[in-house]
User: Fold this.
Amino acid sequence: MAHPSQLGFQDAASPVMEELIHFHDHTLMIVFLISALVLYVITAMVSTKLTNKYILDSQEIEIVWTILPAIILIMIALPSLRILYLMDEINDPHLTIKAMGHQWYWSYEYTDYEDLGFDSYMIQTQDLTPGQFRLLETDHRMVVPMESPVRVLVSAEDVLHSWAVPALGVKMDAVPGRLNQTAFIISRPGVYYGQCSEICGANHSFMPIVVEAVPLEHFEAWSSSMLEEA
Assistant:
């Protein structure tokens, strides 16, 4: 969960998000070193009148400043491609959920069950109970088992939406007439919040996503109770 004046990412709750944070730190350090070098060169050029005719026309320097940026780009590109393929990989999911975007709420269908599905609306401010977050809490949470591969099929019924949960490293566009898929494994129990990340109309800011990760036995009890209610 994000908090006021937070500068970094939310705490990672999935292996993919941990990889994304590590890649961010790796790239940020490279950018910091490049910025420091450029700042030093600019400062040196402005503050000194000394010149060296061998530096102004040097084949060795040209070779260095051609090869060095290429090496730096490779150091950024290889980890980036690795994470890209990790995010695209979906191996034998234990549970499949279809998330459908509407104006302006989400509906979820547990496709492994016959009649398990519900709509998820934001709880209005006047109806919040102590401890609930304004503009983020929903009347029905998407409950999933922890430490299990979960596949989410994402689509929309009317306009473009985007199903995104930052702590899980998940963001998938919901396009009418198209079925996109993403997957995640939640490494610890908890409640994780997200929002529609595509400008979808007047109430775009009021269609939150709440994912609750519970142990498998608790998930089975929850699904049984939901099926009994249906």
In short: The helical segments are 15-47, 53-56, 59-88, 216-229. The chain has two domains: 15-88, 95-229. The two ends are 31 Å apart (CA to CA).
